[in-house]
Amino acid sequence: MKVAKFGGTSLASAEQIKKVTNIVTADNDRKIIVVSAPGKRSDDDTKVTDLLIGLGETYLNEGKADDALAAVVERYRDIAEGLGLDDDIVKTIKDDLKSRLAYDTSNEGQFMDQLKASGEDNNAKVIARFLQRLGYTAEYVHPEQAGLFVSDTPGNAQVLPEAYDHLYKLRDKDGILVIPGFFGYSKEGRLVTFPRGGSDITGSIVAAGVKADMYENFTDVDSVFAANPKVVDEPCSIKRMTYREMRELSYAGFGVFHDEALIPAFQSNIPVCVKNTNNPEASGTMIINEREYATNPVIGIAADKGFSTIYVRKYLMNREVGFGRKLLEIIEDEEVSYEHMPSGIDDTSVILDDSQLTPEKEDRMIRRIIDELNADDAYIEKGFAMIMLVGEGMHETVGIASRATKAISEQGVNIEMINQGSSEVSLSFGVHESSVDDAIRGLYEEFFSEKKVLQ
Amino acid sequence: MKVAKFGGTSLASAEQIKKVTNIVTADNDRKIIVVSAPGKRSDDDTKVTDLLIGLGETYLNEGKADDALAAVVERYRDIAEGLGLDDDIVKTIKDDLKSRLAYDTSNEGQFMDQLKASGEDNNAKVIARFLQRLGYTAEYVHPEQAGLFVSDTPGNAQVLPEAYDHLYKLRDKDGILVIPGFFGYSKEGRLVTFPRGGSDITGSIVAAGVKADMYENFTDVDSVFAANPKVVDEPCSIKRMTYREMRELSYAGFGVFHDEALIPAFQSNIPVCVKNTNNPEASGTMIINEREYATNPVIGIAADKGFSTIYVRKYLMNREVGFGRKLLEIIEDEEVSYEHMPSGIDDTSVILDDSQLTPEKEDRMIRRIIDELNADDAYIEKGFAMIMLVGEGMHETVGIASRATKAISEQGVNIEMINQGSSEVSLSFGVHESSVDDAIRGLYEEFFSEKKVLQ
């Protein structure tokens, strides 16, 4: 049995949905499909989730939002007509949206959450109906009825362990099951959405729950690439990579998945296959537990901007047992997590993700480092990017760090930070944001230039 | 005014002491000399400090130690005769040693401390007497009378700030002042020895106290070398280096100084000159505040063995605010300080100096990391060496890390850890102990092979 998840662009229109149902019905193993809300049909289109956000905000501000509601309904009507469905499905969706608008608005976050989740939910209903019309046994599955229970943390749902047992019972159902992605339910029955990468998370949880043989993740690229195609021209395709590699790459800014989306599948050791809805014949990228890495110890290069460094200097710091701990305590008091902490004899740096910082937090941290730790100097520097070179074979291959630093230097880029020594599958570099693309191109040239496909 | 410190090999025999007095009297600025105990006259000789330790241990075990006492007295008699001094100096020394043996033995540490310190103390008396015999105005200076007050921490004396004001008054004295190195006195009048590098510390403190124009440190090499001569054949000489460079190099196992010995001189901005007693014409190595580094951004390579790594893996570690702080707290509870802490997404390593570890401490740390931090895995790996590449110009020179990693890799050495990003003047690597010499030779070849003297 396979669980297949389809993203927003794969479901943006009747035409796209037909591709999806063709894919689903072409393989009897594709028993469960997890769907996103309809995405953009073209670059200047608006995806349904954004229409729903507009609808919710207008309603909150003005107490009514007839035009915005009509715009959402029209998107579904357009799809339903293209699929040859009866008008009653459109009416069902319109009634559903009206009942969601009637939800208690005193908690705006919860109001918006249940409205946004309608994008996936109604799309699942449309697709189930279309499969039925085509003559297949198919069923829309409500996440609460399927037992997809999550923590009651709006916008950041975490799956509860018992959900897996409930989901396993989906195996008993006949035909094709269509499940909306992006949300689950708390034990108290409240709809709660997942963080970034929501539909991928649902797919991954369902695949783990039903103990699928494979989790297929359909998107709009033929495979995962070794580097960002916006930075490197025609980067080579990755045919096979490990969970660890995928996790490190997506953590460091790889766009395909949010770094935690695949965790449930990884933990259940279910192979993940990334495929293209628009070209389902392409073999895609398999994400598995282990791979041979003799020919390509390095599999990918990821990068992310927006890092800051807290630099701290104190004479004889290395003699002061507890200095590093006290420094991390000050950072922790601001609820900021850190990325790396390289250290010298009399100085240490802490690298942080900018998104967690505010001018007030920065001021408080620096003041406390000076006052409480008696540092001789402490300041924050902004504008760093972190580059991560990832590959299962890196740790055992002599010379990777040498080739990587050389490749970066030859681009005229100064390496501000190197972090190697803990992870066996990655090596990370800090550079100034302005030179990160040059550094990536240099690394790509060094490790991938003569390859087309990474086996 | 110059303060000159002479090490044990410079004062091992009458012949050596004559070289020293020639050096001292050749320059009127050399007003204060700080002396070690007589060192080894040849490779298979025993230095006086070790004779004194043997004397103390025999006395503690057997309640008497006539032979051992005679052996020490004989060393001084030999020197005194070679210098043409009267026998009364030998009698003075013998009486001094007897009175030290009569010291309270209930605190063995203090008993041994005051006995060991006699090596420097009596040597200073001999040298002052010899200078007087040569017709110079010279005086033995007792550290307590000079006000060299230190913390009451046996074997780990730290100078008290007021000592500098007392020492400044030494400027008022006439002639050459001879001060024994290695110890000071607590405010309660107890003799307390300095940690490793004791005589260097005394010289540095005295130079700072009297606001000397220069602190000359006489040893048995013409200069400081860019790498360990036992690993690299005829390494090139360093003519000029900065305090920071010296401090980083000596921290990482450079033999010339203990890394903190020169701090008082550094803090008072007094130039330090390392010179050779056996070849005083050689210009030596100047250690100063700043240097030009255009031609040689890297100045030296140091290395030290005996490091361990605590490896900790926990799924989603990067999401857990406070993990690093809690880990360092566990290590701190064992009174262990750490060197570096490289980190990945789900794992982190802490690099520690083996000398601080015991099997019990290791067990407790690992158990607490598993139990209290819920780590998925935690273990200690031994047998690492840290290599430090040091130079003021490194931070501003693109490509240093690249050349360094390449040079190490070309020796077939795998780099286990790289730490760059905090110190502006160093870059450190972790390798297995068995391959550290190969790595050093590779680095030397890359950065120094075509140079003879580093300006």
From TrEMBL, chains A, B:
ATP binds at residues 5-8, 219-220. The keyword Transmembrane does not apply. Its EC number is 2.7.2.4. Substrate binds at residues 49, 120. It catalyses: L-aspartate + ATP = 4-phospho-L-aspartate + ADP. Coiled coil: none annotated. GO terms for molecular function: aspartate kinase activity; ATP binding. One of its GO terms (cellular component) is cytosol. Keywords: Amino-acid biosynthesis, ATP-binding, Diaminopimelate biosynthesis, Kinase, Lysine biosynthesis, Nucleotide-binding, Transferase. It comes from the Bacteria. It holds the Pfam family ACT_9. Catalyzes the phosphorylation of the beta-carboxyl group of aspartic acid with ATP to yield 4-phospho-L-aspartate, which is involved in the branched biosynthetic pathway leading to the biosynthesis of amino acids threonine, isoleucine and methionine. This is Aspartokinase. It comes from Alteribacillus persepolensis.
